[in-house]
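Supplementary Note 3. Input sequence used for the single-chain structure prediction.
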Amino acid sequence: MKILISLACSIGSMGIAWGSLLSLNISDRISLQRGVFLSSLGFVYFVSLTDFFNRFLLETAKGLEWRKKYHLMVSDVMDITNKLVSAVQASLSCLAGFLVCKSSCNRSFLHASHFASEAYAWFGAAYFFYDLWSMYKVHIHKVLDKLKMVKDQAGNGLKNGNNGHQVFDGRRNGNGNGVCRADGDVECREKEIHDDYGNEISLEARPSFWHYISRQPLMVGHHIFIGSFGLCVIAYLRGGLGDCIFSFIFLMEASTPFVSLRSILSTMGMKSTNLYMINGILMLVTFFIFRILMLPFVFYWYSLTVNLPFIRAVASLPRGCKISICILFLPQIYWFYLILRGAIKVFFPQKVMPTKRNRGEFQKKSTNCVISTDNEAKNQDGKFEENFRILDNDKQKSLTLM
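The predicted structure, written as discrete structure tokens, is reproduced below.
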């Protein structure tokens, strides 16, 4: 029942948003009251859509079957949901950009307007603030899944014995932290667990929202900039410019669905598939076209329109426009560098010639690993099923987004 309510809220909020724009003329501006109303609907839409995806994957029989097939924990589901909503937002942004570009650019590159530009700026701004919280929730569940797995392994270690090795004891000492039991001369020390950013985490503490965003200044700055200053530029600080130029900003999201799909395929363990390779190529190409080449092309088009040299035309843009473009464009160069470097490693892997020392170390490690291979193979499926069952019992907590 709750999954249907989430779906109804998502569809209803989008329908109300579109319906509120039907009475507008093509060149009408969005008032402050209408804009706040659209942003509110945006929050409802993205939150309810996230809740729908989570409940589908965590509560339905089809979702449970899919999770078991790809060995997905709760944090994996939360991450996939985050990427799905990101792809939906990007598709809506591209749709708005296409409508505005087709209408405004054909009439006047500089002065023609379309209400969809400001309307989606208000509606989409909600996503960037919601997404900060959504990514934090994904991070929280990754930490919780790691703690559950460590405690589960610790329980198995205490149950089966440590065979002379240091094991983690789930019982707490006087300080309330987990302690280690040691046999023989093995020193006992506190068990260390780290999150995805290399930070040590406690078995009891919960990472705060402010600590999480402080570890990712580039991502946080990008989201806050788009959701606040970017909205102000499109709605109020455009300096008399029409919507044609801003429509290309919306089209920059064309590469996001491929970025999201890449993360989803990686989470599902499909990095070695042809689909992952093809998606990676499409991600690289679309990112380069829509986030690197497109802005210089728009500047060139603008210079032809105002009949000025390229540099002088860029310098003549309103100050707010130039500042926003610089803040928006510079991170794209960095992200494209990371994508390109990753693509080079995939398509042109470096072959390392083994030395005598490396071969000796490999043979030594192989000998040690062979001893425990049979036992690990026997217990692998059982351990996963147990972890999956334990994590699945807390799925209701996973649906708490706000």
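The two ends are 20 Å apart (CA to CA). Residues 162-192, 366-378, 380-402 have pLDDT under 50 and may be disordered.
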